[in-house]
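step: validate -> pass
step: tokenize input -> pass
step: predict -> running
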Amino acid sequence: MKQRNSGRSRAWYRGVMAAAAWLATPLAWAQSADPKPWQLNMGRGVTHTARMAYEAHMVALWVCAVIGVIVFGAMGYAIFKFRKSKGAVASQFSHNTKAEIVWTVIPVLILIVMAWPATAKLIAMYDMRDSEMTVKVTGYQWMWKYEYLGEGVAFTSRLDRGSDNVRQSHQVPTVASNPHYLLDVDNRLVLPVDTKIRFVITSDDVIHAWWVPALGWKQDAVPGFINEAWTNIETPGVYRGQCAELCGKDHGFMPIVVEALPKEEFKRWLATRKPKPAEAAPAAPAAAPATEAAPATEAPAATAPAAPATPPQPTAG
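step: predict -> pass
step: emit ->
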């Protein structure tokens, strides 16, 4: 009996460890702001903007939770306390002015209280002042172009070759073989931490949407229009997103990868991407000094031939 119980305990232990290993495998490649297995709530993000969105979400969530508990609690109490089996008789009335005023005024006050901090956060999310650098983002079918304005650095970013090969081979990707399937690119957008960065976002063909959840905002890229956003990443790391607008048949293959580096590392990276100055053309060889010319001999002056004498004219006699 003891051996049977010990065997069951060992099997249970191995099962628990296997389940823990299975759950921990995706976490090995997870960044600080990546979604986690069985995550129910939204992430906090790694920017001030993301935290403001998270805080507004949590306030609304708790208000809704309290209202739900009160409403459903009152319903449950009324259903149980005044049930027909206990002989309860329903009141006969069409309306109650006081009750209608109360259940109209209270929700209005709740909305006003919730709208005040939400409006302040929205205003702060669109405050582009004091930006330290500007990045232009242009959407194409189906890739992104990034330009560091004023730095002379620009490049395109598209789905990495590994994910594209797996996609076209019709293989079934796994976390072990390709942990970031359809979420990796050939050229990452590299940004510095602790820097207020302004984004100007547009599109060249159709409507796209630039979205990295860890940054806490999403902005549409519309042809012919310039939309703005800003971010200030506080934690170095790699943060992934996707195009969030149905932009065509390859919409699912437009990932976004942002790599946040410390300021000094970013400066070194940016220096390597700047175009090198054109090499100066070699100077023309100096002209050979002119040799001193021999003094020219004075040529004898040419004497003009004397004109013939005019013969005397005969005089008339």
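step: describe -> The CA atoms of residues 131 and 241 lie 23 Å apart.
step: cleanup -> pass
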